[in-house]
Amino acid sequence: MILFLQRKGRGMHLVYIYIPLFKLVRILVMVLIRDVVKEVLTTGYLTLADENQLRKLLRTKYDKEDLNAFMSLQEAAMNGLVKQEARLRLE
User: Which residues are paired to 17 by β-bridges?
Assistant: First the structure.
């Protein structure tokens, strides 16, 4: 439940909104594909946690900027600019 004050005329009153906790957490912790990609490209290392997070994010709605970021990550991985934890575990 979220409480906030709303101005009505000259006074204020409390307004209650019920939002299920899982939706509230999703709203508060909105992570974008481009944010994950930026971190991976900065470190040069794609962890298993990053891969799992990207899989989850790719199942949701995303915009063109996120898609472009993901494609740049794929290209960086193919060109050897990013090490992948999953592949290193296989070696």
Answer: 2
Confirm whether pTM is higher than 0.85.
no
* Alpha-carbon gap, residue 89 to 83, rounded angstroms: 11
How many separate domains does the chain show?
Answer: 1
Alpha carbon distance 51, 54 (integer Å): 5
43 and 73 Cβ atoms separated by less than 8 Å: no
> Tokens 């439940």 — which residue?
1
What is the b/e burial string over 35-70, where b = at least 16 CB atoms within 10 angstroms of the residue's CB? Answer: ebbeebbeeeebeeebeeebeebeeeeeeeebeebb
Residue 58 has pLDDT above 80, yes or no: yes
Domain limits at 6?
2-90
Reply yes or no on whether the pLDDT at 40 is more than 60: yes
Cβ atoms of 43 and 82 closer than 8 Å: no
